[in-house]
């Protein structure tokens, strides 16, 4: 991984799973640049977790004394954020998405704005979810499950509307 980072080149990495739906689908490939300068909320990063590579959205970047940065990430299709990620475990930032023969660049002004908006909404959902955790113990299991499902559906609906809207207005797939 270190040699890969130091190479300074970009790499395509395949995406597996559903944690980033509706934005990324199983089988997509992401173009990863290894420059992490100006990493900010809403960016999509690839990081190493044990022996796996994870592709999730950045919710918060915190400078740490003598450690570089730590990053809070979350999959768009997940309710809970990931444990904090050390900056040394981040492979790079996603610059484009390839789906079949088409490619969507994410380094345009419109996509940077939309990803930041999604990141802000995700951070708000994380805060709402954390506030709701104490209430979870007071609710029956059935009501708690119902509340979590409703929260998840709302978050996914908002993400889907933003992502599809961006696809219509500015995010044209290139062949």
Description:
With 175 residues, this protein is α+β, with helices and mostly antiparallel strands. Helices cover 35% and strands 29% of the residues. The chain is built from three helices and eight strands. Strands 1, 2, 3, 4, 5, 6, 7 and 8 form an eight-stranded antiparallel sheet that branches. Helix 2 runs antiparallel to helix 3. The protein is globular and about 50 Å long. It starts with a helix and ends in a 6-residue tail after the last helix. The mean pLDDT is 82.
Secondary structure blueprint with pairings:
Blueprint: H1 2-6, E1 11-14, E2 29-33, E3 44-49, E4 52-64, E5 68-74, E6 85-86, E7 90-99, E8 102-105, H2 109-136, H3 141-169
Antiparallel strand pairs: 1-2, 2-7, 3-4, 3-7, 4-5, 5-6, 7-8
Helix pairs in contact: 2-3
List keywords for this structure.
175 residues, alpha+beta, 8-stranded antiparallel sheet
């Amino acid at each position: 991984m270190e040699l890969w980072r130091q190479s300074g080149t970009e790499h395509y990495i395949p995406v597996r799973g559903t944690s980033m739906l509706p934005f990324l689908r199983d089988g997509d490939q992401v173009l990863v640049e290894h420059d992490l300068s100006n990493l900010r909320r809403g960016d999509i990063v690839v990081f190493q977790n044990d022996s796996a590579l994870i592709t999730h959205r950045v919710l918060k970047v915190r400078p740490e004394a003598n450690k570089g940065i730590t990053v809070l990430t979350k999959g768009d299709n997940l309710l809970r954020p990931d444990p904090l990620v050390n900056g040394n475990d981040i492979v790079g930032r996603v610059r484009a998405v390839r789906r079949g023969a088409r490619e969507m660049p994410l380094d345009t002004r419109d996509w940077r704005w939309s990803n930041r908006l999604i990141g802000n909404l995700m951070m708000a959902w994380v805060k709402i979810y954390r506030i709701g955790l104490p209430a979870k113990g007071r609710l029956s299991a059935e009501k708690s499950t119902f509340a979590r499902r409703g929260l998840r559906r709302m978050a996914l609906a908002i993400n889907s509307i933003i992502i599809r809207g961006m696809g219509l207005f500015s995010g044209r797939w290139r062949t």
